[in-house]
Amino acid sequence: HQNNFQHILPGQHVYDGVLFFGYSPPETLDLVKTFHVRADDVFLVTYPKAGTTWLQEIVWLLMHEGDFEGALATPVYIRSPFLEFKDLTLNEIGLDLASTMPSPRVIKTHLPLKLAPREILVKKPKVIILFRNPKDVCVSYFNFYKCSSSFGNFQGDWPEFLAMFCEGHVDHGSWFDFTKSWWPLRELTNVKLVFYEDLKRNPFGIIKELADFLGKQHLDDVTISRIAAHCSFEKMRENPMTNHQDVYSINSQVSPLMRKGQVGDWKSVFTVQQNEDFTQIYLDKLSHLEIPFTYQL
Ligand code: A3P
């Protein structure tokens, strides 16, 4: 698994050792590093397919006192900008959207720590890191690659994608590097680490924890329950403000963003051998961190 980036295709580039597609061009990645962070920002830090959109909707609602009307009026990707994203057709940059947005901002990034805005470590905004077990991430990412023109409507098969994922030859680079880079920050008081599987198992409890972390203890249990219900997989899949069906670069006929929303779907895709190989790669790279991932509920 040497890092020779054998899968670089037209429209991709490598920035500081991390593979990106055209929608995160080098000049945008340069600007992200010096992005002006505000102390009252909330950063959502996730590797692609970890459940980012789910967390965005929850956190936006918490930060806006359960404003469901507002949430149903504007797509989540506008309310919560994707920092390093530049829409190549509309020429919209997440950075521009974020810069002019009133506080409190809920900002999404998939960058590894070394490429994130430097002021995150200085201004100490709230940071929520969302982790999901890498096998489900990989399967979800494979389906996303196939349906998204941003990734060239990937025509390869599952074994090919699995190899690319293990080598970090996918957009935003290695899941292993991303995970390693943010894991130590969980100890900081302005940082909260959440697992997708815990959110799935106990949405009310985790959303309540997030409310406490965000200084929103005054939100009552009825509001928390309503947020949990509004953000269920079924509701978000039907909701045009969260399901991304209007995003031109995603062909929902091939695979919708809201695909299955389950824990353990990887079992229907990995062969026994692939699972053994993947587990070994995981152990070699990350077992020393002892991250408590859950692979089934
Ligand atoms: P699957 O492909 O496994 O279904 P991201 O938002 O980071 O791109 O992640 C997308 C993944 O999160 C998809 O996983 C999607 O179904 C899942 N997801 C989105 N909203 C969800 C929700 N409300 N509950 C559970 N999973 C959700």
From TrEMBL:
One of its GO terms (molecular function) is sulfotransferase activity. It comes from the Eukaryota. Keywords: Transferase. Pfam families: Sulfotransfer_1. Residues 40-288 form the Sulfotransferase domain. Belongs to the sulfotransferase 1 family. This is Sulfotransferase 1A1-like. It comes from Biomphalaria glabrata. The lineage of its organism: Eukaryota, Metazoa, Spiralia, Lophotrochozoa, Mollusca.
